[in-house]
Design a protein that fits this description.
Elements lengths: L1 H11 L6 H18 L6 H11 L6 E3 L3 E4 L4 E5 L5 E4 H5 L17 H19 L6 H14 L1 H13 L23 E2 L2 E2 H16 L11
Antiparallel strand pairs: 1-2, 2-3, 3-4, 5-6
Length: about 220
């Protein structure tokens, strides 16, 4: 009963998960438990899906420089001549759990999209966690790694070391206060470093509404 109340209160207040999220909840929970059952803050990944795609399986972001698709917004980026610069799908299908994914025919496959997000976050967390004082701070860095590349976090850590920051690192009030070389540029009219810092803040704020999913017996 307590779990049900925890679920209903935010919904009644109009702040709960969207209908699309509720439809995909069983699949998301299945994928999360299968590939990262030990995650201490699993609702963070639910907030991440909302930020990436608003739980729309056919979500698409297309510009002259990139194409993002699906629940996890797997991305292909392009050079000025139109050739591929980077293709997340090609990295994804190297994962054992995703080897059967024909991404060219079905780039929006919901299960594979969610599997990629969960496994990628789990892999980043395993490397990043020892650098941070707690799971929330480490999770913020994991979110940045997913959104902007693992190298972004490594470069921020290097910049923090150069500035004399000691371990354990904080993301909030720590690495979000430093900038690595190359971040002082504009992307879509906004400072690149600021945009990268916004991502974990937005995700963690959105994530709170999903906590009750783990208070309900499934």
């Amino acid at each position: 009963m307590k779990g049900l109340l925890l679920f209903l209160v935010p919904v009644l207040l109009g702040a709960g998960p969207s209908p699309q999220a509720e439809v995909l909840r069983p699949l998301f929970l299945e994928v999360q438990k299968q590939h990262w059952n030990a995650c201490s803050l699993p609702w963070t990944m639910a907030g991440q899906v909302e930020q990436e795609s608003n739980w729309k399986t056919k979500a698409t972001l297309k510009t002259s420089r990139e194409l993002g698709r699906g629940l996890g917004q797997l991305t292909i980026t392009y050079k000025q001549d139109g050739s591929e610069r980077f293709n997340t799908y090609r990295d994804a299908v190297r994962m054992r759990a995703l080897k059967g994914w024909d991404w060219q025919q079905d780039p929006y496959h919901a299960r594979f999209q969610l599997t990629y997000l969960v496994i990628t976050d789990r892999s980043h967390f395993a490397v990043i966690r020892p650098q941070f004082g707690n799971d929330k701070e480490a999770s913020a860095a994991v979110l940045v790694a997913y959104n902007a590349g693992f190298g972004t976090v490594l470069k921020r850590i290097a910049a923090a070391r150069q500035a004399g920051q000691a371990r354990p690192y904080l993301w909030f009030g720590g690495l979000d206060q430093v900038r690595s070389p190359g971040e002082g540029v504009l992307l879509y009219g906004k400072d690149l470093g600021d945009t990268r810092n916004e991502y974990p803040r937005k995700v963690l704020q959105k994530a709170e509404k999903y906590r009750p999913w783990w208070s309900i017996e499934n």
